[in-house]
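Final report, closing paragraph on structural work. Over the funding period we assembled a curated collection of sequence-structure pairs, and we close with a single example.
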Amino acid sequence: MEPLNEDPTDTFTDANRPLYEVKANLFKGLAHPVRVRVLEVLAHADTDLSVSDLLADTGLEASHLSQHLSVLRRHNLVVAERRGSLVFYSLAYPQVADLLAVARQLLVEILETTQQRLISTVGR
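Its predicted structure, as stored:
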């Protein structure tokens, strides 16, 4: 087995990486509630959103939001476009919104199943 490439900037450029590694890196980009929130906001927006819009929605300090946006860019989940002195963000791919919707459906189903199991256990 070949050693794994440890360079985080090479995440999606190495065509020899197995698909499961690429998928895992994608989920690393999603592995924080703030980043998921930012993606959901962008998914429901009718237009690109400025950093100011995202700051207002998340309530984060600019430096913290910037760090999360950097992770999302690095994992190819969002794209940034500078327009004058402002930077606007949008989803890099529309499938990101689909992924979030499927995750929500799955979580609802998991919660409902867990609730039913708890109800049936208590009723015994």
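The two ends are 51 Å apart (CA to CA). Residues 20 and 26 are 10 Å apart (CA to CA). We thank the funder for supporting this effort.
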